[in-house]
Design brief:
The chain folds into two domains: 134 residues, no CATH class; 303 residues, Lipocalin, CATH 2.40.128. It contains eight helices and 16 strands. The strands form three sheets. Strands 3-6-7-10-11-12-13-14-15-16 form a ten-stranded antiparallel beta barrel. It has a four-stranded antiparallel β-sheet with strand order 5-4-8-9, with no helix packed on it. The longest helix is centred in the first third of the chain and has 23 residues. The chain starts with a helix and ends with a strand.
């Protein structure tokens, strides 16, 4: 019964073509060079070709299997028609409600009445262009087989690209940095109580950067891959602030010294109010920061079919070199003097690191990414701090400090890949925290020294990746 019902799908639309001139001219299958002597069969095959090509282009296995099912069903219908060339099947098809051929409308009452009086013409007459209907049906079946055989589902869509891959990645970064900046100026009451760093500069700025990396992935087993990678990065930021005028409100103004042992005023300068003459104007702070460095790491690439994830644990080491160029200045018009601190610090950081990257494909062209990284930062900083105060020789001290701290980074993003190409584009957002900010501290009781404080980055990146 199923064969009898389904076979009508081939015949029902063919009736529309019986009015065409009877000739042996074949029907072209749209979009191909293949020809069939039956117009309706040609149209159905063209639909299947379009569905197969679309599924292959999108790496969509489900859509591809649906197109194969349509091809198999069409072959069944043709095979049934081959055995029942003269059997009227239109009414039984219309009762079947087959969704695959849903574009074929039911008969209206007049058409149904007419069909009751005449039988459906045999397959050969309906085609109106065939002198050997059974031979042509067999040919159409072979055409369908040829269409399917020449459009296999790509192996690259079935599984991730095989390892032994060389990967090159370049990217740009834009974001915000929060970097601790030391305060300046101080006050002293008549009773001798001192308050330092009463003026707090801004600590937030815009950071720009670029990076490049290369990686090589190779197979350890059928289900486990390994990779080694290395890269370079560079970025810079400027933190500028113009601070409000500062009034000691009757207390002494302290211009804290650098502690230069060769200066008679190593502890700094103390200016009495004299009715407000020690008011400070045009207080400014400017910090320019640069980072550059390199990293290497190695790890495993482990597809986890149970969760649909690819897990990549890794470990490595990074070397970062940073430079801080900072000046802080102000005017004291009541005394006709100005002051300016110039601070230069270079920091080298060696960071053993470890982490994991997670990737989940939600579409053949789209993958979601998560990453987590921890590092042990071994920091060594050197530099100088200089104070220029009108009417006195500059005083300067060398700076040197080292420390070890822990840093971490979290990231998320999306990767867009064009199927069957070697190129992908990714966008990511990253938050990074470390205690590598070199902050100068001045007390007037000892030489200026460095302490390490928070450096926080919130950045967005765009990366282009090429795989070979």
């Amino acid at each position: 019964m199923r064969n009898a019902v389904s076979s009508a799908a081939i015949l029902v639309s063919l009736i529309a073509f019986t009015a065409q001139a009877a000739s042996e001219e074949p029907f072209q299958i749209p979009g191909t060079y293949i020809q069939s002597t039956n117009a309706e069969t040609a149209r159905r095959i063209s639909w299947i070709i379009a569905d197969l090509d679309s599924a292959i282009a999108a790496c969509d296995r489900g859509a591809y299997d649906q197109a194969l099912a349509k091809a198999d069903e069409l072959k069944v219908l043709l095979a049934d028609a081959y055995e029942n060339v003269r059997e009227p099947l239109r009414r039984s098809y219309l009762r079947s409600n087959d969704p695959f051929w849903k574009d074929l409308r039911p008969l209206d009452e007049s058409e149904a009445a007419a069909e009751r009086e005449v039988s459906v013409p045999d397959y050969g007459d309906v085609r109106s262009r065939s002198s050997d209907p059974q031979g042509d049906i067999a040919l159409d079946i072979s055409i369908i087989d040829q269409v399917v055989e020449t459009r296999p589902f790509p192996q690259t869509c079935e599984t991730p690209p095989r390892p032994s891959l060389a990967i090159v990645d370049v990217g740009v970064t834009l974001g915000r940095v929060s970097y601790k900046v030391g305060g300046l100026l101080g006050t002293e009451t008549l009773a001798g109580a001192r308050t330092l760093n009463v003026v707090k500069p801004d600590e937030d700025g815009t950071v720009y950067g670029a990076s490049g990396s290369a990686a090589y992935m190779f197979a350890l087993s059928e289900f486990l891959n390994a990779f080694v990678a290395g890269g370079y990065f560079g970025s810079s930021a400027s933190i500028e602030s113009t601070l409000p005028d500062f009034d000691p409100a009757g207390d002494r103004l302290l211009i804290v010294g650098t502690g230069d042992p060769n200066s008679a005023n190593r502890s700094g300068f103390s200016l009495n109010s004299f009715g407000g003459l020690n008011r400070v104007t045009n207080v400014m702070s400017s910090s320019h920061l640069e980072w550059d460095g390199a990293w290497v790491k190695g790890g495993l690439d482990m597809p986890c079919e149970c969760l649909g994830l690819t897990v990549r644990p890794f470990a490595g080491v990074a070397f970062t070199r940073s430079r801080l160029e900072q000046y802080q200045s102000g005017n004291i018009p009541g005394f006709g003097r100005t002051f300016r601190y110039d601070t230069h610090v270079k920091t080298n950081t060696v960071s053993p690191l470890f982490g994991v990257d997670l990737s989940k494909s939600i579409h053949p062209m789209i993958a979601l990414n998560l990453s987590a990284l921890g590092s042990v930062d071994v920091i060594d900083a050197k530099g100088s701090d200089t104070l220029n105060f009108t009417g006195f020789n500059p005083q300067s001290v060398s700076l040197s400090e080292n420390d070890t701290s822990f840093g971490w980074r979290l990231g998320t993003g999306v990767t867009l890949t064009e199927p069957n190409t070697n190129m992908s584009l990714s966008f990511s957002a990253t938050y990074q925290h470390s205690k590598t900010a070199a902050v100068t501290e001045r007390t007037g009781l000892m030489p200026t020294h460095i302490r390490f404080d928070d450096a926080k980055f919130l950045t967005g990146s765009a990366n282009l990746r090429l795989t070979f």
